[in-house]
Amino acid sequence: MAENKTLEHLPEVRAAVAALSPEDRELLAAVQASPFKLTTPEQFKEFVDNIDYFVFEPNIHDLNDLGWRYLAQHIDTPLPPELLKAIDPVPFGKYAMQEEQGHFTEHGYISLSGDKWEQERPAKLEKKPSIRERLEQGKKECAEKHKAQPYKEKLRRNCKEVLICHITITTRIIPLPPLSLILGSIMRASLWASG
To answer: In the list 34, 56, 146, 180, which could disulfide-bond 103, CB 3.0-4.6 Å?
Structure first.
């Protein structure tokens, strides 16, 4: 009980209950007086979308009433008053209560309909592109940038064009190793011989 009193003071619970019709408030009162009572603020907010989750019969208060209701639903032919007087509805009421897993409250009889409880769905978050999609987009941007700025035709001998990342292409100076003495003398000799 203390838990429900605490919930009633929450602004979102008060707002959800205030928005209910008088019939739906009566249903909520029966739900809260039964083992099906709502226990979280989310359930109170979702209650209006889940009215059909419950079956509420305000005119049924005991096993006698429930038994007569069960008989009315299951007997196809009307019975004469003499036979109706011979019927004890209480066993039928017990059977119906067990079958429906229902409960009596001061507001009436309540059971579950068998419908699924509909939960509030969070607003759809904007889908972020995956890493693969972002890489593909980066490649496309790089290709467009490449078309807009073609490679420089003439690079110095000690410069190489290097792909630094998938988005930018840049020119970076890469020092070449010094020629060894043997290689240098071979080169000079071949240059001297050719002319």
So the answer is: 34
- Classified as helix, coil or strand, 104 is strand
The per-residue b/e assignment along 114-136, b for 16 or more CB within 10 angstroms, e otherwise, is: eeeeeeeeeeeeeeeeeeeeeee
Q: Is the pTM value of this prediction over 0.70?
A: no
Amino acid of residue 139: K
Bridge partners of residue 173, in order along the sequence: 159
CA distance 94 to 70: 10
* Sign of the torsion angle spanned by Cα atoms 93, 94, 99, 101: positive
Between CA 72 and CA 59 the distance in angstroms is: 14
Condensed to tens digits (0 to 9), the pLDDT of residues 117-176 reads 888 765 555 667 777 777 788 778 777 776 666 555 554 555 555 555 555 555 555 565
The amino acid at residue 150 is P
